[in-house]
């Protein structure tokens, strides 16, 4: 590896295989600076650009982008990176592409899907309820799982999805809600406050909220918060099956 993509490509094209290639290149640069600097200073920038293009040209293939469109992944980021580099230059263009990638990632997280789970046959496994003939819901218990880590940007949406699901058939038959938070390594203050509000909303409907598969950091945060709406008995790092058996005897 060199100091950047073009340097790495030049090393590879020259046959470099070990870190000694970088030392050899450094020695050559030191000699050139010591003896040829007055002439190097007058090399036109287009000539330097041509040298870089020649070094990296063998790595540039439009076919490299096909996989992203075939996979339906990172298409917008790859196109944005190409356009940004052409318009802003390599460094600023790549920074712009990173910013686009982060914005798309935040948008994906903020639109977190909430999946409903059911027990797989008579096993201890809980999987997606839709599309599985051998999966059945636990009577009286609504089991949901956010498909992304909770944070301030999506927790309101997730709480709204829980309430919306309660209003769909069989509405009025639920006694408790089990929320599996296995995707959330930790919880920020917005998440804690929103979960407390959700628990109060469910209590007003005569339902209880139980949190399963809490990671250690999330469990510690909720324990320190000491929310009356979410007592210690409602918080667990155990599996969905163990929590359901504990609260519903199922």
Describe the structure.
- Strand 4 (141-146), helix 7 and strand 5 (176-180) form a beta-alpha-beta unit.
- The protein has helices at 5-13, 20-40, 45-56, 66-71, 75-88, 90-110, 155-166, 189-204, 216-225, 240-248; strands at 114-120, 126-128, 135-136, 141-146, 176-180, 208-212.
- The longest helix is centred in the N-terminal third of the chain and has 21 residues, at 20-40.
- With 250 residues, the protein is an alpha/beta fold.
- Strands 1, 2, 3, 4, 5 and 6 form a six-stranded mixed β-sheet that branches.
- Helices cover 52% and strands 11% of the residues.
- The mean pLDDT is 88.
- It has three domains: 1-60, no CATH class; 62-110, no CATH class; 114-248, Transcription Regulator spoIIAA (2-Layer Sandwich), CATH 3.30.750.24.
- The protein contains ten helices and six strands, in the order ααααααββββαβαβαα.
- The protein is elongated and about 85 Å long.
Q: What is the overall silhouette?
A: elongated
- By CATH reckoning, the class of the largest domain would read Alpha Beta
**What is the CATH homology-level superfamily of the largest domain?**
STAS domain
- Poorly predicted regions are none
Classify the helix fraction into a percent range: 40-55%
Count of helix runs: 10
Q: How big is the Rg?
A: 28 Å
Average residue-wise pLDDT? 88
What name is given to the CATH topology of the largest domain? Transcription Regulator spoIIAA
* Quantity of strands, as a count: 6
Strand content: 5-15%
Query: What's the assembly state of these chains?
Result: single chain
Number of domain units: 3
> What is the structural class?
alpha/beta
End-to-end distance: 57 Å
Give, in order, the helices and strands.
Answer: HHHHHHEEEEHEHEHH
């Amino acid at each position: 590896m060199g100091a950047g993509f073009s340097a790495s490509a030049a090393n590879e094209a020259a046959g470099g295989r070990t870190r000694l290639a970088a030392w050899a290149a450094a020695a050559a640069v030191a000699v050139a600076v010591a003896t040829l600097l007055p002439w190097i200073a007058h090399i036109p920038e287009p000539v330097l650009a041509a040298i870089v293009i020649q070094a990296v040209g063998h790595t540039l293939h439009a076919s490299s982008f096909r996989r992203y469109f075939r996979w339906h992944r990172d298409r917008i980021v790859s196109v944005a990176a190409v356009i940004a580099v052409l318009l802003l230059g390599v460094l600023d263009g790549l920074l712009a592409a990173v910013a686009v990638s982060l914005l798309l990632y935040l948008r994906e997280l903020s639109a977190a899907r909430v999946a409903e789970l059911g027990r797989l046959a008579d096993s201890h496994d809980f999987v997606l309820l839709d599309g599985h003939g051998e999966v059945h819901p636990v009577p009286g218990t609504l089991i949901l799982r956010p498909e992304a880590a909770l944070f301030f940007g999506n927790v309101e949406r997730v709480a709204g999805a829980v309430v919306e699901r309660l209003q769909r058939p069989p509405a009025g038959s639920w006694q408790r809600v089990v929320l599996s938070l296995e995707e959330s390594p930790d919880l920020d203050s917005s998440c804690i406050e929103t979960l407390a509000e959700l628990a109060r909303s469910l209590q007003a409907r005569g339902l209880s909220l139980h949190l399963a598969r809490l990671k250690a950091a999330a469990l510690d945060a909720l324990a320190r918060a000491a929310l009356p709406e979410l007592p210690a008995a409602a918080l667990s790092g155990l599996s969905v099956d163990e929590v359901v058996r504990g609260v519903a005897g199922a």
